Each structure stands twice: as C-alpha cells, then as structure tokens.
Amino acid sequence: MYDKLSLYFKVLVALAQGYCLKYFLGSFLEIRGRRKRINGFLIVITYVILKVALNYIWPVNNESFSTVGKVLLQFALTIILALCFYKRVHRMIAYLAVTFTAVNEATFFLSYVILQIGSSIFELWIWCMENGYISSAETIKLYVQVTELVLLLLFYVMYIVLLYMVLKRISVNFCDKEYRIQRTELYFIITPGIVGLLICVLLRTIMITIENDLPKLLYDKHPILIAIVPAILALSLLSIVYVVKLFQDMIALNRERSNRIILEKQVGSMQKHIVEIERIYSGITHMKHDMKNSLAVIMQLVRKDCEKQSNECIENKELKNYLSELNKSFESLDFRFKTRNTVVDILLNMKYHEAVSSIPDIQIDAEKLLFPDKLNIKSYDIGVIIGNALDNAIEACKKLNAENQKVQTYIRLSSFNKGKMIFIEVENTFNGKLVRKKHSEFPITDKSDKNIHGMGFANMKNTAEKYYGAVDWSVNDNIFTLTVMMKNERRMEHEY
C-alpha cells in the first residue's frame, strides 16, 4: 500500500513539474502550432514519460558521477522540450534551462531540509512504545507508515508550491521577454542559476554518508547544518529571482538613456533649424504678398492697355490668362494648415504631403488645433509632440490602408485649454491591432528593430513631463486617441 501511494505521489509530482516547466517556457517562448492547449498538454505528458523513464533507467544514489549526470540529463531534457515544442528559440533557452533546473533542485532540497524537522515525530512513536503507550507492533508500524505518507505528501506539496512560486516570480520580474539578450548579459543573469545548481549537486553528493555500512544524514553528524543549509538554498533562490529584477532595471535604465540621447539629438537638431525655418517662412510670406500685389498691378495695367489698343487685345488677353495662372500658383503656395505656430504649420504641411503620397484619400483635419498667442511652451517641444504623434498616426493609417483600401482613413488634431493647462488630442483610424506588453505603459512597435523604432511615446512623455504634463491614450473600436497635457509655463533650462 505504501509503495503504491508513493508511486502515485511521484507520478503526480512529475505532472506538476511538467506543468511548471510548460508555464515557465511558455512565459518566454511561443509555442508551435495553432492548437496551443493540445501542444501544452503534450509537453506535460512528454516530460512525465521522459522523467519516469529517466528515474527507472538511472536510479537515485549518492555517487558523485551519478548525481552530476542526472542533473545534466534534467538540463538536456528541458532544452529538448523547448526545441521540440517552441519556435523562435534563441540563446535565452540556455538561461531558461539552467534556471529551471537550478530552481527545481533548490526547491526540492529546501523542502526536504524543512521536512527533516518533522521527522522527529518518529522519535515520539518510539518513546510511546518504550513507555508502554503503544504495545502492538502492528500499531506502531501503521503509525510509522501513516506518518511517512503524511510527511511525503507535505514534502511534495511544499516542493511544488515553492517551485511554481519561484518560477512565477522570475517570469513576472522578467517583463521584457522580447529583449534580444547579449552574450555578456546572458553570463550575468545565468551565473546565480549555475551557482545554485552547483550547491545542489554538492548537497546531493554529501548529504548521505555511509558509516559502519549504515546510511547516515549529514545533519546527524553536524546538526548546525539544519539551519545553515536552508539559509544557503533560500539565498540562492533569492539571488536567481532578484538578479532578473536587477537585469530588467538595467535594461529600462539603458533604454531610457538611449531615448534621452535620441530625444536630445532631435531637440538639438530642431533647435538649429527653428530660427532658419522661421526666417525662411517669414521671407516667403512677405515675398508671396509682394508678388501677389505686383501681379495685381500688372493685370490692372494690362486691362488699361487693352482699352487703349483694341487691336492688340487678343495678345493682351493671353498675357492676362498667363498672369492669372501665375497668381493661382502663388495661392497654391499658401500653407494648408494655420495654427498660429510656425513650427507646427510647417510640420503639419510636411507630414500632410508625406501621408498623401502613400494614402491619396487620407483626411487630415487640424482646424481645431489652435495655440494661444501667449504660448510659453517652446516651439521645438511642441514640434516633438506633434511630429511624433503624426508619425505614429500616419504609420497606423498606412497599415489600415494596406489591409483594406476601402476603409476611410483620417487624422484629426485638436487642442483646448483648461486654466494653465494645454491639451493636444490626435485621433486617427487604425486596424484595431495593438502590440501590448504586460508592464508597458504604451503600445509597442511591431517593427523588427525595436531599438530604433517605437520610441515616439517615450519622447512625447519626456517632453510633456518638462511642463508638468503627461501622455495618455485610449482605443474605441478602430479609433486611436492620443492626449498630451502640458502646463503653459516656460521652464528654466536647468530644470530640463
């Protein structure tokens, strides 16, 4: 009876281990095939079969070579399952295999060591028998077997719960799972797992010793280890968990630095051209005004000349038509959008022509995008907001148009004031598909090079925060709305 229950426990534990492995690998890798549930079930069953076969072929003992071999086979089994059932496997698989094996071994030993404290109950049964409280040998045997089963059950439950909790914490901490990890970064995050694995191999090797042809636990010889070993294992698990958190913080810090550098370059480049753009824009406006006045005078002279010399009216009429067409050409040079902000006008007109070249039927409406005469937000900061917002909106409209050319695409820009706060809203159509991350504030780009693309939201957020503002977004069916809030107050340069 005891042997059968023990076997059932081991099969159930193997199933639980297989589920934990499926959960852990599935958190980082994409499973093959369309029937994900069936494939997930196959992963668990395959793991159980291989695990049982491994235990049958290679029984547990305390020989060093056997111990190291079984750990290596567990590592290999994890890699094989990942290669067979998951796609886009990269160097991250080495981290996953080492981490799962290390956590599996460490939680096993931690549970085992903690349960050793409960084994003192056997001494209670011996004391009861010696003092006559239990006289029957069958009774004491039954008590011992029940105690063994209860302790075994507690051990397995504690082990599986610890295993799942640690793997889940690692998965949650490693929020940037699509990050293409570099070799030196891999060495950094994999080291705690390797150290933990070596500690477990050492424990497997020295835990049981043979004295006078009888097995003896290391705790019997050195009782202090019953407190030291769990502390070492717990610290090992904590190092595996928190090195991931540290690594994610490093990624976030580096990405923020990169975004800051790119933003500073954008701002610097814009600052260099703002004065020149405004000068050219002002010059063109004055020249256009003067030319229109000159054309009006020339046309008036043509009419008078035609009245005096009626025989040359046909030739003057052709000249009149030419001048009229020339005047229309000058009128076509007028900016399509006028928001009272030179930089925004230039950006809107430039982005409009860029969008129309790809989507001829796109509608861009900026009639409600008006800025107050007393605008304390710097022009290049407004330019960063509008430029990045338009880039994202145009890209979304291009994707929608590529999928369905019959759907009307549009971009609407508006602004309004509430006290000292200025709100800028950009609304656009899109295909309804957003790439989201669990812990990401904004949608992420679906382009392959995420180090270059997908930083528009971060740049807008950094710019808005200069003016005690924020960036928010919402989705309603196939309409994406971006809202940027900023305080209409000029900030000192050192506050940036």
Structure, explained:
The chain has 496 residues and is of the alpha+beta class. The protein folds into two domains: 260 residues, no CATH class; 161 residues, Histidine kinase-like ATPase, C-terminal domain (Heat Shock Protein 90, 2-Layer Sandwich), CATH 3.30.565. The chain contains 13 helices and nine strands. The strands form three sheets. The protein has a five-stranded mixed sheet, covered by helices on one side. A two-stranded antiparallel sheet has the order 1-2. Strands 3-4 form a two-stranded antiparallel ribbon. It is elongated.
Put the structure in a nutshell.
Helices cover 67% and strands 10% of the residues. It is of the alpha+beta class.
Task: Write a concise keyword list for the protein shown above.
496 residues, alpha+beta, Heat Shock Protein 90, 2 domains, two-stranded antiparallel ribbon, 13 helices, 67% helix, elongated
Task: Summarize the SSE layout with pairings.
Layout: H1 2-28, E1 30-31, H2 36-57, H3 64-85, E2 86-87, H4 92-118, H5 121-130, H6 137-173, H7 183-206, E3 208-211, E4 214-217, H8 218-221, H9 225-308, H10 313-332, H11 342-358, E5 363-368, H12 379-403, E6 410-418, E7 421-429, H13 456-466, E8 470-476, E9 479-487
Parallel strand pairs: 5-6
Antiparallel strand pairs: 1-2, 3-4, 6-7, 7-9, 8-9
Helix pairs in contact: 1-2, 1-6, 2-3, 3-4, 3-7, 4-6, 4-7, 4-9, 5-6, 6-9, 7-9, 9-10, 9-12, 11-12, 12-13
Strand order of the largest sheet: 5-6-7-9-8
Amount of beta strand: 5-15%
Average pLDDT for all residues: 78
Distance between the termini: 74 Å
Q: How many structural units, i.e. domains?
A: 2
Class computed from helices, strands and strand pairing: alpha+beta
* Helix proportion: 55-70%
Per DSSP E runs of 2 or more residues, the count of β-strands stands at: 9
General form: elongated
